[in-house]
Structures are given as C-alpha cells and as structure tokens.
Amino acid sequence: MPYANYSYYLDCYNGSMISASDFSYYAKRATAYIKSHVKDIDAETAAQACCALSEAIFKYEDKSTNISSEKVGDYSVTYKSENQSTLEDRLADVLKLYINPIGWC
C-alpha cells in the first residue's frame, strides 16, 4: 500500500502535477523506492516523501518535458539533450530532502 493517497497529495502536499487516475501508479513506485532505501520512517515524512518522489518519477517519464522548442510551419521539434542524471540520482536527491542520510539502509 502506498504511503500517500491522492487525497493526501492534493490536500496536504498541495500537489497538482499528477492526475487522480495516474497517482496510484507513481505512489506505488515511490513507496517501493522509499522502502528499499530507508529502515525506519514516520508516517508523515513517508507520505511527504512519497508525493515528492511520485512527482519526480512522473517528470522523468513525461515525454512532453523533453521538448525544448517546437515550430508549426514546416513542423519541427527540437528535443532537450539527455539529462546527465539518471532517475536513481534524481530520486536519491529528492529523498534526501526528507530523510537524514544516516537513516539509509
């Protein structure tokens, strides 16, 4: 079961990036990441971290954010160069905002 539900995401975390229909998918992945990296975590911190990680995963997987410019006449699309950091690096950075690294597994 995810550490946060969509109601928490909207009302407590004040999130708006992820739709209700998609949130469960990202929250489950975020929860799995937290459980694999943290031994002991309180419920509020877990829920906050879950929401932040869910957004990080969502941004990483959202293909539309890779477009840097688009032209309409003679249609042309320019994509951003591949981000230097991996998803794992990004998730670790986000989780560190909520968890003291001493508590890591």
Task: Please provide a written account of the structure.
The protein is elongated and about 55 Å long. With 105 residues, the chain is mainly α. α2 crosses α3 (43-61) and α3 (43-61) packs antiparallel against α4 (87-96). The chain has helices at 6-11, 20-37, 43-61, 87-96, and strands at 67-71, 76-79. The mean pLDDT is 86. The longest helix is centred in the middle third of the chain and has 19 residues, at 43-61. It starts with 5 loop residues before the first helix and ends in a 9-residue tail after the last helix.
Cα distance spanning the termini: 20 Å
What portion of residues belong to β-strands? 5-15%
Query: Low-confidence parts, pLDDT < 50 over ≥5 residues?
Result: none
Overall mean pLDDT: 86
Query: What profile does the largest beta sheet have?
Result: 2 strands, antiparallel
SSE order, as H and E? HHHEEH
Structure class: mainly alpha
Quick take:
50% of the residues lie in helices and 9% in strands.
For this entry, give a set of tags.
105 residues, 2 strands, mainly alpha, single chain
SSE blueprint and pairings:
Blueprint: H1 6-11, H2 20-37, H3 43-61, E1 67-71, E2 76-79, H4 87-96
Antiparallel strand pairs: 1-2
Helix pairs in contact: 2-3, 3-4
